[in-house]
Amino acid sequence: MISAKLSDSEFKRLSTFILQKYGINLTQKKTLVEGRLANTIKQRGFEDFKSFIDMIFADKTGTEMINLLNRLTTNHTFFLREKEHYDFMKDVALPYFEKTKKNNKISIWSAACSSGEEPYTNVMAVLEYFALKSSAWTVEVDATDISMRVMNKAKEAVYHVDSMKNLPDTWKRKYFIKQDNDCFKVSPDVTKRVTFKTFNLMDRVPFRAQPYDIIFCRNVMIYFEHDTKIEVVKRLYDVLAPGGYLFIGHAESITRDTTQYQFVKPAIYRKPLPGEIK
What we know:
The chain is an alpha/beta fold. It is built from 10 helices and 10 strands. β9 and β10 form a beta hairpin. The longest helix is centred in the first third of the chain and has 18 residues, at 83-100.
């Protein structure tokens, strides 16, 4: 039995660090933090919040802090989430790149990729669009997250059938290999096109020399305070190619007077070409 509730001082210590280091604003979510951590503290044998939080700060590897963030911010994810984005890719974005790209390569960044369903969906969507022409086109996806734990799950590429319920049957047959216990493994033809990297969105993007055609950064900025979100959006803008598209979560938005993006439709933005009006 936990002997005490989360004190104001311990909550401030934790939430302030998370805001400064990761840009995630939990300062008004003490009840949520307390509720989500109670069972974890009990399961791990701690008697109070203070000793648990002391342990997190004492971990010099940062692993415990990242695991904590996963418990506090994890969203349920699945393949072909927010299908409207993939309809837009098929109907607008990919036809545009097919006409304008001279190197026959589509580069995508899946930021805050969690357990991998999004980046793998991205590859499948591109392969489906180009179909018989796919051998003439290259798709490269960088997938990043702050958590090594979810990254390792993503690299395994094994998923329960429940997370595949939105996928067309043809995709399931073409891009998955049946495993045991209602699980499926993403085919090597898809996984070989995704590169996973740990990355904190608060940091400068160090791993991309050429700009991306498409960036997915969905359902993560809801945790950022206003100024942090502006900084992250600008950082994404700087590594997006002119004419490229940014997809964010449908519960998120970008204030138009703080960005150079063109608003396309809810949760979809475009980086203007040189000379174009915002």
